[in-house]
Design a protein that fits this description.
By secondary structure, this protein is of the alpha/beta class. Helix content is 24%, strand content 20%. The protein has 7 helices and 10 strands. Helix 2 (52-55) links the parallel strand 2 (43-46) and strand 3 (61-64). Helix 3 packs across helix 4.
């Protein structure tokens, strides 16, 4: 039975932190559970990748804890401490994270910090951009006869000079690379060294589900040349594999 949409369903409890996935951006891709928690929270601590339309008109106090290129704001330790402090003030806290809290979003680190401090925590899944961006651009991550598995990799290294953990080439696997726009020239040679052919299709999807969403398609051999003709900026998702060739024949998100 569907929850009643006109009344709060399991409202946020005071003294509890909710790690909530905001999805890829569009407000209507929030889960019903996420919406109800946002409507009943005392305070929302949000990332920079969360669309302002999601939290801009909430009754809750909103705190920007986003990390941006060259500016890590509070830093992860600071965010962990803030969440603990707010919960210990007996507030109902939503930690609103882009995508899904446990997909390359440090949500599990925050959950561990809350557990260590004895703070109750609930995790609410969200639609990860690693799944939403290809779909909205008309690219299936798996397709019978082309790909029966996919791998999601972060191109944002934890340590300076560290390369992404990319698996060797498999013709039946789709590779999804997050946060790789500004490091394309670094991880592209790694792909070639791992056996990825230059003719393999590649697509970049920018700001999937946002009004500014757009996508462009190339190959591993041409993408650096094509990149000069496209102004790429974060957030963007790279999809690499034969499934990209289906893009012109499948439904795509309409701006």
């Amino acid at each position: 039975m569907l929850p009643t949409l006109t009344e709060p369903h399991r409202p946020a409890r005071r003294g509890t932190v909710y790690l909530v996935g905001a999805g890829p951006g569009a407000p209507d891709l929030l889960t019903i559970r996420a919406l109800r928690l946002l409507q009943t929270a005392d305070v929302v601590v949000h990332d920079s990748l969360v669309a302002p339309e999601i939290y801009g008109e909430l009754a809750a106090r909103c705190i920007d804890a986003g990390k941006r290129s060259g500016d890590h704001g509070l830093g992860q330790d600071g965010i962990n401490a803030l969440l603990v402090q707010l919960a210990q003030e007996n507030l109902a806290v939503v930690r609103l994270k882009g995508g899904d809290p446990y997909v390359l979003g440090r949500g599990s680190e925050e959950a561990l910090a809350l557990a260590a401090a004895g703070v109750p925590c609930e995790v609410v899944p969200g639609v990860s951009s690693s799944l939403a961006a290809p779909l909205l651009a008309g690219i299936p991550l798996t397709h019978r006869g082309l790909a029966d598995s996919f791998c999601v990799v972060s191109a944002h290294p934890q340590h300076e000079g560290q390369l992404p953990d990319i698996p060797p080439f498999s013709p039946r696997r789709t590779l999804v690379i997050l946060m790789g726009v500004h490091t394309l020239s670094q991880w592209l040679p790694q792909l070639h060294a791992l056996g990825y052919p230059e003719t393999l299709p590649l697509a970049f999807v920018l700001r999937a589900s946002w009004p500014q969403a757009r996508a462009w398609q190339s190959t591993l051999g041409r993408c650096l040349v094509d990149l000069e003709q496209h102004a790429l900026a974060s957030p963007a998702v790279a999809i690499i594999g034969e499934v990209v060739s289906l893009r012109d024949r499948l439904p795509q998100e309409q701006p």
